[in-house]
């Protein structure tokens, strides 16, 4: 299978707080990140999230407060969910 990704993924394991308009806050762990999005490990992702939904996210545990970014749910895998960053 050809990799048709526009941006390379970089393995990255950090805590990410996701704020969902219905389910509230979820603390998840990232698997990888690229210029266009992030993959997060989350149990029951398909029960909690829907394709096309917008959520906000903020990396946790840094020495300073990280920016809050808007993301869209784009894909599910058995281990989690792919989110793309929303650009202004």
UniProtKB/TrEMBL annotation:
Domain of life: Bacteria
One MF term in the entry's GO annotations: cyclic-di-GMP binding
Database matches in InterPro entries: PilZ_domain (IPR009875)
Domain PilZ: 3-85
UniProt protein name: PilZ domain-containing protein
Organism whose genome encodes this protein: Aquipseudomonas campi
């Amino acid at each position: 299978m050809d990799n048709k990704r526009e941006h390379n993924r970089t393995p990255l394991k950090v805590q990410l707080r996701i704020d969902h308009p219905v389910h509230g806050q979820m603390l998840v762990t990232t698997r990888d990140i690229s210029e266009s999005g992030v993959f997060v490990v989350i149990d029951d992702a398909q029960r909690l999230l829907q394709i096309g939904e917008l959520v906000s996210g903020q990396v946790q545990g840094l020495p300073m407060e990280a920016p809050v970014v808007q993301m869209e749910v784009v894909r599910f895998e058995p281990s989690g969910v792919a989110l793309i960053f929303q650009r202004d």
